[in-house]
Design brief:
Helices cover 36% and strands 13% of the residues. With 284 residues, it is an alpha+beta fold. The strands form two sheets. Strands 3, 4, 5, 6, 7 and 9 form a six-stranded mixed β-sheet that branches. It has a three-stranded antiparallel β-sheet with strand order 1-2-8, with helices on one face. It is globular and about 50 Å long. The termini are far apart.
Length: 284
């Protein structure tokens, strides 16, 4: 008799031991993309909210919402709702933050040289074009923190490419600082967007809180694979609801958000309209 896991492919067989070891996993389609959302969540019709904060709690019949579908539950991984995703999988991914680690993704030789000169030695995993450097600890994720370098930890996924070599070091401050201080500059098309004047009580104890919030908003837009319009509006709304009443947002922050939205195909006019609609929704 054929075992169910044999039908679902080698990638499921590779994923199950990882899940047993406490690493939240999910299948990846060709192109290193997660499975598309299920029918009920297509186009983020569900709002994308219930499953976007904690991985492994998706109640959809198939893997949904990217990294948030990653799980260690073998019953979910081998369940009928995930069978097609495993049959069509091209690789296994995992949620680094859920596994308690941060991945510094080095995409080319120049990035590797920079890391060897700048970062503490740690466990390394070879990739197709570069290396993953793994550190013990969790932090916000961000893309393009410098040329050829991404940081993948919370609310992100990385391709599983093996255990690597070397001893994993603790997450150093120099890596945490990448998300705040070394974010790649962006130059969006010229757009005028009103910035709330504030006047409310500022809840930010440090500038880092705001900077990380903007970086996570950029990441959410950059990783949108469908319903980009809705994702951009929802992200603008979230940023303004948290940071729009105390006067901390600046034109530089809106330019960063508009730039990543434009990189996903949004026009400057769409960005301005989404921002204005979010301001109106919140009464700012």
């Amino acid at each position: 008799m054929t075992h169910p896991t044999e039908i679902r492919g080698e990638h499921l067989l590779a994923a199950l031991p990882l899940a047993a070891a406490g690493v939240p996993v999910l299948p990846l389609r060709p192109g290193k993309m997660p499975p598309g959302n299920c029918r009920d969540c297509t186009g983020n019709a569900c709002g994308g909210r219930p499953n976007m904060k904690t991985p492994g709690h998706c109640t959809c019949p198939a893997p949904c919402h990217g990294w948030a579908a990653a799980t260690t539950d073998p019953d979910v991984l081998t369940g009928p709702g995930w069978a097609r995703a495993w049959r069509e999988a091209a690789a296994v991914a995992y949620h680094p933050g859920g596994a308690g680690v941060t991945v510094v993704d080095l995409d080319n030789t120049q990035a590797i040289v920079w890391a060897r000169e700048t970062l503490p030695a740690t466990r390394t995993v070879p990739t197709t074009r570069g290396e993953h450097w793994l550190y013990r600890g969790v932090m916000p994720s961000a893309n393009a923190v410098r040329s050829g370098v991404d940081v993948k930890s919370s609310m992100s996924y990385a391709r599983w490419l093996g255990t690597g070599t070397g001893t994993m070091a603790g997450l150093p401050d120099v890596v945490r600082a990448l998300v705040v201080r070394e974010a790649a500059p962006v130059r969006p098309a010229s757009v005028t967007a009103p910035v709330p004047g504030g006047g409310g009580r500022c809840p930010h104890r440090t500038r880092t809180f705001l900077e990380r919030g903007i970086a996570m908003a950029e990441q959410r837009i950059a990783e949108a694979t469908a319903a980009v319009h809705a994702t951009v509006f929802g992200t603008f709304l979230a940023v303004l609801s948290t940071h729009g009443r105390c006067g901390c947002l600046t034109t530089a922050h809106t330019e960063r958000l508009f730039a990543v939205a434009q990189a996903k195909g949004e026009s400057p006019r769409h960005c301005a309209d989404a921002w204005a609609n979010a301001l109106t929704r919140l009464g700012l």
